[in-house]
Specification:
Right-handed parallel beta-helix repeat-containing protein, 1 helix, elongated, Pectate Lyase C-like, two-stranded antiparallel ribbon
């Protein structure tokens, strides 16, 4: 990728985001001009934005930084940066009280770049006045955005059903962190998008997007909502690596970063970690932690089923989402992942209602087959309290399903306390079920070795995804029940 940085990592420490092993903001410099923003900069009249220095205190048109990203991309009038330019934002908090205009499109050889300056804390873009979007990528293509904290400074949740949590006419909140539509060739990296009144991302009609080291947590309605109007279908390669999507459908306490006021669809909320409208594209999601969202965790049920579309999930840890943990349609590969259907986690908590728990009978993994699909589920650990660990829907005779070398652990079915099933589905097409291990499940289809011994040390509330039953379970031939980089669940 042109102008890309060596891989880094986001690490949560004490509720804050630390950037580890990241390259400098100036790496892979765009051929365009470079502009600077810092908290001690000046207005458009006082400074030209061309030097990373403070405003000296007097004079106009000085060679110094601007004092806000809004100077570069004002709500109205002409933008002060052009396609292919770079805007480097210094550390500190910047109140975004009016909606910035879209980032100007770059070109295939020169992206427009909006970057936080590295070497300190992430610059914070704090939406205010209830603005609809903090960062605006409507129609923006060939863009790179990185090293930023995108949030607001209010605990409130937009349109919450409870008045104690609902946003009022105050000026400290914003609806959406990143809005994007009709946008292609975009690279987002090293972002923390959290605490927005409604959605972290509202993004659809995308082509060839990449997210790396991005956190989307504690946004009041949803983490990623793909509904941008009448046509939000995506195309090309949609890549997400080293991401976290958690506690969406909850507000965020500004003072502590804790989730609160969690609500679901039964009380007027939404709650998906990531959800789309009807979409195409080739989706690749790797090294993802998707947890404690108040509806589905990863909802790709609206893949359009075209033969050219597919979803690949690798090293995904999905746990304690109130709906399904993972759901996909069409061609799919799910491998080396841990999927824990603790779908009653929110029962009796916050503003959640009982009907919000365990949608689609609590299946941990839901596969929707559309005809001429190939779906492979291999080397995963799948546990849960739903009716079954894996559920198939709408299969046709041309579909091919391969359930290979997985481990399943059943827990009492949330409806009646009976054991949940290991289901290989009843697809009328070609099915291959082989090398699977299962404990405490109510059914044991051909291709699954089942054991009914109790495992008292295992509970859904503290499911240890590093656990292996014995040495044989560590072999790829017998199954791959362990995730070598499991992340702990989070509870407030």
């Amino acid at each position: 990728m042109t102008g890309s940085c060596p891989p880094g990592r986001l690490a949560a420490a004490g509720g804050t985001l630390a950037l580890l092993s990241l390259c400098g903001a100036e790496a892979g410099v765009s051929p365009g001009a470079t502009y600077y923003v810092r908290t001690d900069g000046g207005s458009a009249t006082q400074c030209n934005g061309r030097s990373d220095t403070r405003y000296p205190g007097s004079g106009s048109a000085q060679n110094c930084a601007w004092n806000s990203p809004l100077v570069a991309l004002p709500n109205s009038g002409t933008a002060r940066i052009a396609g292919g330019d770079t805007l480097i934002i210094g550390s500190g908090t910047y109140r975004i009280g009016s909606q910035m205009q879209p980032v100007p499109s770059g070109s295939s050889s020169a992206r427009t770049r909006i970057l936080g300056k590295t070497g300190g804390s992430l610059p914070k873009l704090a939406g205010a006045n209830g603005i609809h979007r903090v960062l605006n990528l409507e129609g923006s293509s060939h863009v790179e955005i990185g090293h930023l904290d995108v949030t607001d400074l209010s605990d409130c949740v937009f349109n919450h059903s409870n008045t104690t949590a609902k946003c009022d006419s105050g000026d400290a909140w914003a609806r959406v962190g990143v809005y994007a539509s009709n946008s292609r060739n975009v690279w987002l990296h090293d972002l923390d998008v959290h605490g927005l009144g409604a959605r972290g991302f509202q993004a659809g009609a995308l082509t060839d997007w990449t997210l790396e080291r991005v956190r989307i947590n504690r946004n009041g309605s949803a983490g990623w909502d793909g509904n941008v109007g009448t046509n939000g279908s995506n195309a090309g390669k949609i890549v997400m690596r080293d991401i976290e999507i958690g506690w969406n459908g909850c507000g965020e306490r500004v003072a502590t970063g804790e989730p609160w006021a969690c609500w679901g669809q039964k009380s007027g909320g939404y709650g998906d970690g990531l959800g789309t409208t009807s979409t195409g594209g080739q989706w690749l999601i790797e090294d993802a932690y998707i947890h404690h969202n108040t509806s589905d965790g990863l909802d790709l049920l609206y893949m359009n089923g075209a033969d050219s579309t597919n979803v690949a999930l690798r090293r995904v840890h999905a746990v304690a989402n109130a709906g399904n943990q993972v759901k996909v349609s069409g061609n799919a590969l799910i491998e080396n992942s841990v999927i824990v259907g603790h779908c009653t986690f929110f029962k009796g908590k916050y503003f959640m209602q009982d009907g919000d728990s365990c949608r689609a009978y609590g299946a941990a993994l839901l596969l929707n087959l559309t005809g001429n699909d190939t779906v492979t589920v291999r080397h995963n650990t799948i546990a849960g309290e739903g009716e079954a660990q894996i559920v198939h829907k709408n299969s046709q005779s041309s579909d091919r399903v391969h359930i290979l070398n997985n481990v399943a652990v059943g827990f009492p079915y949330f409806v009646d306390g009976s054991r949940s099933a290991f289901s290989a589905g009843k697809a009328p097409g070609t099915r291959t079920v082989s090398g699977n291990l299962a404990w405490n499940v109510s059914s044991c289809p051909e291709g699954v070795t089942c054991d009914s011994h109790d495992l008292p040390e295992l509970t859904l509330a503290a499911f240890d995804s590093m656990w292996c039953a014995d040495d044989s379970a560590r072999s790829e031939d017998a199954g791959a029940p362990c995730l070598d980089r499991a992340r702990p669940g989070q509870s407030p």
